[in-house]
Design goal:
- There is one protein chain.
- The chain has two helices and no strands.
- It is mainly alpha-helical and about 55 residues long.
Length: about 55
Amino acid sequence: MNGPYGVRGMAEMPYLPYAAVIASAVFDAIGIWFDEFPLTPERVLRGLGKVRNRW
């Protein structure tokens, strides 16, 4: 969670690269890039074209 001016708590710093690592692993597995997190099963299926937007 971001605070004022986008600052973060010091305990969150080691976890910042994980989003890119997960997106890269999913890309290696299925060949689709995702730029939104959290990477939910619905978003992955929508990326694969199996689930249509409900909105």
